[in-house]
Design brief:
With 297 residues, this protein is α/β, with parallel strands linked by helices. The protein has eleven helices and eight strands.
Amino acid sequence: MPPRLTAQDFDQELLILFDAYVHGDLDRRGFLSQAQRFAKAGVTAAGLLAALSPNFAAGQQVRPDDNRLKTEWHTVPSPAGNGQVRGYLARPAAAGTQKLPGVLVIHENRGLNPHIEDVTRRFALEGFMAFAPDALTPLGGYSGDEDKARAAFATLDQAKTREDFLATVAWFRARADGNGRLGVTGFCYGGGIAHWLATRLPDLQASVPFYGNSPAPEEAAKVKAPLLVHLAGIDERINAAWPGYEAALKAAGVAFTMHQYPNTQHGFHNDTTPRYDAAAAKLAWERTVAFFKARLG
């Protein structure tokens, strides 16, 4: 098997183009057209896109049928007229009916794909009850095609989607097998939602955004939960807004810690793409688990 590609195998400008493509600022045709100048040694622009795109099998750490876990699919009624929200729940099997702390896991801008399901299982193996809702449920859920999922995601009514996340929090917290304490984490789009939920839920126990969009600085005073913020070293799109929000958090007396991981790309925790940085992802994960264990009980 050939060695796994890393971000260092790609030109930084190409990685920036890929980031624009992933976040909808550049369509597939536009990416392929601009990526063509990086094609060499028989590798086409389409080949570059394929190499940068997720490989869920390569990144899987916990099998869906791992007998250490109990996993279930649940639906949460939508208060926003979306019908319902479907989500993936994972608990350690050995816990039985023990009341566990909850971790809400929010996906990127492609819906609840196999990678986020895997991350949800990882949290369960750490002793949490983890739930990952799929914001794409009103549009049929994650389709299995990242391009189609991204296109569908762009059509969501985000005001309604955010109300669905709030409803999911209430449902999750009310479960008889939970201890009522809740943390939230998310990645990219989900990191932005983790930030946003901290401004909306004064009784949230912890929030851990991974390279998510920061709220407007005037929202910082609403944050009561301690924050653990993970940022990539090379991520101009996200990092540009952080200093203003950081200053507002300090002014409001919010308890927060920010870690920025040098020389890493946006998405460095996602081990299904070459932007993954194993050392940074491991450290960020260890910090996240310790943070949740300290604050959720």
